[in-house]
From TrEMBL:
The HTH lacI-type domain, residue ranges: 8-62
Transcription regulation in keyword set: yes
Provenance organism: Phytohabitans rumicis
Name of protein: HTH lacI-type domain-containing protein
Pfam families: LacI (PF00356), Peripla_BP_1 (PF00532)
Entry keywords, A to Z: DNA-binding, Transcription, Transcription regulation
Amino acid sequence: MTKPGRPATISDVAALASVSVGTASKALNGNGSLRPETRQRVLHAAERLGFRPNAAARALNEGRTYTVGMITTDSIGRFSIPILMGAENALGAGRMSVFLCDARDDPIREEYYLHTLLGRRVDGIIVTGRRSQARPPIAADQPVPVVYAFISSTDPQDCSVVPDEAGGAGKAIEHLLAVGRRRIAHVTGPEHHHSAQVRSAAARARLADDGLDLVLPPCTASGAKAGAARPRACSWPPVPTWTPSSAAATRSLGASPTACAPRVCGSRTTSPWWASTTGTSWRWPANHR
Protein backbone atom coordinates (compact mmCIF):
# COMPACT_ATOMS: atom_id res chain seq x y z
CA MET A 1 0.00 0.00 0.00
CA THR A 2 1.09 3.61 -0.53
CA LYS A 3 1.86 6.09 2.19
CA PRO A 4 -0.74 8.81 2.84
CA GLY A 5 -0.17 11.86 0.63
CA ARG A 6 2.06 10.01 -1.84
CA PRO A 7 0.71 9.08 -5.29
CA ALA A 8 0.80 5.41 -6.16
CA THR A 9 3.64 4.22 -8.39
CA ILE A 10 3.85 1.31 -10.76
CA SER A 11 6.00 -0.46 -8.15
CA ASP A 12 3.08 -0.21 -5.71
CA VAL A 13 0.75 -1.69 -8.31
CA ALA A 14 3.17 -4.53 -9.03
CA ALA A 15 3.57 -5.31 -5.34
CA LEU A 16 -0.18 -5.40 -4.71
CA ALA A 17 -0.76 -7.59 -7.77
CA SER A 18 2.20 -9.86 -6.86
CA VAL A 19 3.89 -9.39 -10.25
CA SER A 20 7.09 -7.79 -11.50
CA VAL A 21 7.21 -4.12 -12.48
CA GLY A 22 7.73 -5.19 -16.12
CA THR A 23 4.61 -7.35 -16.04
CA ALA A 24 2.58 -4.55 -14.44
CA SER A 25 3.77 -2.15 -17.15
CA LYS A 26 2.74 -4.56 -19.92
CA ALA A 27 -0.67 -5.12 -18.35
CA LEU A 28 -1.36 -1.39 -17.95
CA ASN A 29 -0.21 -0.57 -21.48
CA GLY A 30 -1.99 -3.50 -23.10
CA ASN A 31 1.27 -4.99 -24.35
CA GLY A 32 2.83 -8.42 -24.14
CA SER A 33 1.33 -11.90 -23.93
CA LEU A 34 -0.13 -12.09 -20.45
CA ARG A 35 -2.72 -14.42 -19.05
CA PRO A 36 -6.12 -12.72 -18.77
CA GLU A 37 -6.25 -13.30 -15.01
CA THR A 38 -2.81 -11.67 -14.56
CA ARG A 39 -3.77 -8.62 -16.59
CA GLN A 40 -7.05 -8.31 -14.68
CA ARG A 41 -5.25 -8.60 -11.35
CA VAL A 42 -2.91 -5.74 -12.29
CA LEU A 43 -5.77 -3.54 -13.51
CA HIS A 44 -7.69 -4.21 -10.29
CA ALA A 45 -4.65 -3.28 -8.21
CA ALA A 46 -4.18 -0.05 -10.18
CA GLU A 47 -7.82 0.88 -9.66
CA ARG A 48 -7.67 0.08 -5.97
CA LEU A 49 -4.60 2.28 -5.49
CA GLY A 50 -5.88 5.07 -7.71
CA PHE A 51 -2.81 4.73 -9.90
CA ARG A 52 -2.32 7.27 -12.70
CA PRO A 53 0.50 6.85 -15.24
CA ASN A 54 3.27 9.46 -15.01
CA ALA A 55 2.76 11.67 -18.07
CA ALA A 56 6.34 12.98 -17.93
CA ALA A 57 7.80 9.48 -17.82
CA ARG A 58 5.52 8.40 -20.64
CA ALA A 59 6.64 11.38 -22.73
CA LEU A 60 10.30 10.53 -22.19
CA ASN A 61 9.70 6.90 -23.06
CA GLU A 62 7.59 7.51 -26.19
CA GLY A 63 9.14 10.77 -27.40
CA ARG A 64 5.82 12.67 -27.39
CA THR A 65 3.72 14.57 -24.86
CA TYR A 66 0.21 14.01 -26.26
CA THR A 67 -0.36 17.78 -26.22
CA VAL A 68 -1.02 20.33 -28.96
CA GLY A 69 -0.57 24.09 -28.72
CA MET A 70 -3.07 26.53 -30.21
CA ILE A 71 -2.06 30.17 -30.78
CA THR A 72 -4.82 32.64 -31.64
CA THR A 73 -5.40 36.38 -32.08
CA ASP A 74 -9.13 35.98 -31.44
CA SER A 75 -9.39 37.18 -27.83
CA ILE A 76 -13.20 37.03 -27.78
CA GLY A 77 -13.21 33.42 -28.94
CA ARG A 78 -15.88 33.76 -31.63
CA PHE A 79 -13.77 31.83 -34.11
CA SER A 80 -11.07 30.22 -31.97
CA ILE A 81 -13.41 28.44 -29.53
CA PRO A 82 -15.21 26.40 -32.26
CA ILE A 83 -11.80 25.48 -33.69
CA LEU A 84 -10.58 24.52 -30.20
CA MET A 85 -13.65 22.34 -29.70
CA GLY A 86 -13.12 20.70 -33.09
CA ALA A 87 -9.46 20.02 -32.30
CA GLU A 88 -10.35 18.51 -28.93
CA ASN A 89 -13.03 16.32 -30.52
CA ALA A 90 -10.61 15.11 -33.20
CA LEU A 91 -7.68 14.58 -30.86
CA GLY A 92 -9.62 13.35 -27.83
CA ALA A 93 -9.70 9.78 -29.08
CA GLY A 94 -5.90 9.80 -28.80
CA ARG A 95 -6.12 11.26 -25.28
CA MET A 96 -4.45 14.46 -26.38
CA SER A 97 -4.87 17.86 -24.72
CA VAL A 98 -4.83 21.36 -26.24
CA PHE A 99 -3.05 24.38 -24.75
CA LEU A 100 -4.81 27.64 -25.76
CA CYS A 101 -2.62 30.77 -26.02
CA ASP A 102 -4.06 34.24 -26.78
CA ALA A 103 -1.43 36.33 -28.62
CA ARG A 104 -3.71 39.42 -28.83
CA ASP A 105 -2.13 40.59 -32.10
CA ASP A 106 1.16 41.13 -30.25
CA PRO A 107 4.19 39.68 -32.11
CA ILE A 108 6.28 39.59 -28.92
CA ARG A 109 3.57 37.72 -27.01
CA GLU A 110 3.15 35.33 -29.94
CA GLU A 111 6.89 34.60 -30.01
CA TYR A 112 6.85 34.00 -26.25
CA TYR A 113 3.99 31.52 -26.53
CA LEU A 114 5.72 29.75 -29.41
CA HIS A 115 8.89 29.27 -27.37
CA THR A 116 6.84 28.19 -24.34
CA LEU A 117 4.92 25.55 -26.31
CA LEU A 118 8.07 24.22 -27.92
CA GLY A 119 9.67 24.12 -24.47
CA ARG A 120 6.78 21.96 -23.31
CA ARG A 121 7.53 19.63 -26.23
CA VAL A 122 4.05 19.83 -27.75
CA ASP A 123 3.41 17.40 -30.59
CA GLY A 124 2.06 20.11 -32.90
CA ILE A 125 0.80 23.69 -33.12
CA ILE A 126 -2.46 25.12 -34.50
CA VAL A 127 -2.43 28.78 -35.54
CA THR A 128 -5.76 30.59 -35.88
CA GLY A 129 -7.28 34.07 -35.54
CA ARG A 130 -10.26 36.28 -36.18
CA ARG A 131 -9.37 37.12 -39.79
CA SER A 132 -9.22 34.69 -42.69
CA GLN A 133 -6.67 36.55 -44.80
CA ALA A 134 -3.14 35.17 -45.09
CA ARG A 135 -0.55 36.01 -42.46
CA PRO A 136 3.24 35.54 -42.36
CA PRO A 137 4.39 32.12 -41.09
CA ILE A 138 4.64 31.97 -37.32
CA ALA A 139 8.28 30.88 -37.69
CA ALA A 140 10.43 28.92 -40.10
CA ASP A 141 11.68 25.34 -39.72
CA GLN A 142 9.73 24.34 -36.64
CA PRO A 143 10.53 20.94 -35.09
CA VAL A 144 6.82 20.04 -34.92
CA PRO A 145 3.96 20.19 -37.48
CA VAL A 146 2.19 23.57 -37.73
CA VAL A 147 -1.35 23.88 -39.14
CA TYR A 148 -3.10 27.18 -39.91
CA ALA A 149 -6.87 26.90 -39.32
CA PHE A 150 -9.41 29.48 -40.58
CA ILE A 151 -6.41 31.72 -41.13
CA SER A 152 -3.83 30.93 -43.83
CA SER A 153 -0.07 31.29 -44.17
CA THR A 154 1.53 33.33 -46.93
CA ASP A 155 3.93 30.44 -47.47
CA PRO A 156 2.29 28.02 -49.97
CA GLN A 157 4.34 25.19 -48.47
CA ASP A 158 2.55 25.53 -45.13
CA CYS A 159 -0.60 23.56 -44.30
CA SER A 160 -3.58 25.96 -44.24
CA VAL A 161 -7.20 24.89 -43.68
CA VAL A 162 -9.54 27.75 -44.63
CA PRO A 163 -13.19 28.15 -45.65
CA ASP A 164 -13.93 28.38 -49.36
CA GLU A 165 -15.39 31.88 -49.20
CA ALA A 166 -15.76 32.28 -52.97
CA GLY A 167 -17.16 28.79 -53.44
CA GLY A 168 -19.72 29.27 -50.66
CA ALA A 169 -20.98 32.56 -52.08
CA GLY A 170 -21.17 31.07 -55.57
CA LYS A 171 -23.18 28.09 -54.33
CA ALA A 172 -25.63 30.38 -52.51
CA ILE A 173 -26.24 32.34 -55.71
CA GLU A 174 -26.59 29.13 -57.73
CA HIS A 175 -29.26 27.91 -55.32
CA LEU A 176 -31.28 31.12 -55.68
CA LEU A 177 -30.99 31.06 -59.47
CA ALA A 178 -32.04 27.40 -59.51
CA VAL A 179 -35.31 28.22 -57.73
CA GLY A 180 -36.07 30.98 -60.21
CA ARG A 181 -34.89 34.07 -58.35
CA ARG A 182 -33.47 36.93 -60.42
CA ARG A 183 -33.58 40.00 -58.13
CA ILE A 184 -30.89 39.13 -55.61
CA ALA A 185 -29.28 41.07 -52.76
CA HIS A 186 -26.22 40.15 -50.73
CA VAL A 187 -25.93 40.62 -46.95
CA THR A 188 -22.39 40.15 -45.64
CA GLY A 189 -19.83 41.35 -43.10
CA PRO A 190 -18.03 44.71 -42.73
CA GLU A 191 -16.59 46.02 -45.99
CA HIS A 192 -13.02 46.08 -44.66
CA HIS A 193 -13.05 42.33 -43.92
CA HIS A 194 -11.18 40.29 -46.49
CA SER A 195 -13.72 37.46 -46.34
CA ALA A 196 -16.60 39.87 -47.04
CA GLN A 197 -14.77 41.26 -50.06
CA VAL A 198 -14.13 37.77 -51.46
CA ARG A 199 -17.75 36.70 -50.96
CA SER A 200 -19.13 39.83 -52.59
CA ALA A 201 -16.86 39.52 -55.61
CA ALA A 202 -17.73 35.84 -56.03
CA ALA A 203 -21.48 36.50 -55.75
CA ARG A 204 -21.33 39.18 -58.41
CA ALA A 205 -19.13 37.05 -60.66
CA ARG A 206 -21.65 34.17 -60.49
CA LEU A 207 -24.53 36.51 -61.26
CA ALA A 208 -22.59 37.99 -64.17
CA ASP A 209 -22.39 34.50 -65.71
CA ASP A 210 -26.17 34.75 -66.14
CA GLY A 211 -26.12 38.37 -67.22
CA LEU A 212 -27.31 39.62 -63.82
CA ASP A 213 -26.01 41.78 -60.97
CA LEU A 214 -27.00 42.50 -57.40
CA VAL A 215 -30.02 44.77 -57.16
CA LEU A 216 -27.97 47.11 -54.93
CA PRO A 217 -24.50 47.19 -53.35
CA PRO A 218 -23.91 44.51 -50.68
CA CYS A 219 -25.53 45.25 -47.32
CA THR A 220 -22.97 44.98 -44.53
CA ALA A 221 -23.20 44.13 -40.85
CA SER A 222 -22.56 46.54 -38.00
CA GLY A 223 -22.26 46.22 -34.26
CA ALA A 224 -20.00 43.18 -34.58
CA LYS A 225 -17.87 44.18 -31.61
CA ALA A 226 -20.83 43.64 -29.33
CA GLY A 227 -21.40 40.22 -30.85
CA ALA A 228 -24.83 41.16 -32.20
CA ALA A 229 -24.24 42.30 -35.76
CA ARG A 230 -27.22 43.63 -37.67
CA PRO A 231 -27.42 44.46 -41.38
CA ARG A 232 -27.27 48.11 -42.25
CA ALA A 233 -30.50 49.56 -43.65
CA CYS A 234 -30.61 49.20 -47.43
CA SER A 235 -32.32 51.47 -49.95
CA TRP A 236 -34.88 49.17 -51.51
CA PRO A 237 -37.82 50.03 -53.81
CA PRO A 238 -41.23 50.11 -52.06
CA VAL A 239 -42.46 46.63 -51.27
CA PRO A 240 -45.62 46.80 -53.50
CA THR A 241 -43.45 47.19 -56.63
CA TRP A 242 -41.50 44.01 -55.94
CA THR A 243 -41.52 40.83 -57.92
CA PRO A 244 -40.49 37.61 -56.10
CA SER A 245 -37.04 38.35 -54.78
CA SER A 246 -34.32 36.89 -52.61
CA ALA A 247 -31.36 37.61 -50.37
CA ALA A 248 -28.10 35.72 -50.11
CA ALA A 249 -26.43 36.09 -46.73
CA THR A 250 -22.88 34.87 -46.39
CA ARG A 251 -22.36 34.61 -42.66
CA SER A 252 -19.81 37.00 -41.25
CA LEU A 253 -19.94 38.35 -37.71
CA GLY A 254 -23.56 37.38 -37.24
CA ALA A 255 -25.12 38.38 -40.58
CA SER A 256 -27.45 35.36 -40.74
CA PRO A 257 -29.97 35.02 -43.57
CA THR A 258 -32.95 34.53 -41.25
CA ALA A 259 -32.11 37.75 -39.37
CA CYS A 260 -31.35 39.75 -42.50
CA ALA A 261 -34.28 38.73 -44.69
CA PRO A 262 -36.97 40.77 -42.88
CA ARG A 263 -34.83 43.92 -43.17
CA VAL A 264 -33.76 43.60 -46.78
CA CYS A 265 -37.22 42.56 -47.90
CA GLY A 266 -38.97 45.52 -46.29
CA SER A 267 -40.61 43.78 -43.33
CA ARG A 268 -39.80 44.49 -39.71
CA THR A 269 -40.76 41.13 -38.25
CA THR A 270 -40.92 38.20 -40.67
CA SER A 271 -39.76 37.31 -44.16
CA PRO A 272 -42.50 37.79 -46.80
CA TRP A 273 -43.80 34.60 -48.39
CA TRP A 274 -42.43 35.69 -51.77
CA ALA A 275 -38.87 36.10 -50.52
CA SER A 276 -36.19 33.40 -50.43
CA THR A 277 -33.11 33.44 -48.23
CA THR A 278 -30.07 31.25 -48.32
CA GLY A 279 -26.66 31.51 -46.74
CA THR A 280 -23.26 30.00 -46.22
CA SER A 281 -21.29 29.51 -43.05
CA TRP A 282 -17.88 28.10 -42.17
CA ARG A 283 -19.28 26.65 -38.93
CA TRP A 284 -22.72 25.20 -39.64
CA PRO A 285 -24.92 24.34 -42.64
CA ALA A 286 -26.67 27.11 -44.51
CA ASN A 287 -30.28 27.95 -43.77
CA HIS A 288 -32.70 27.60 -46.64
CA ARG A 289 -36.20 28.86 -47.03
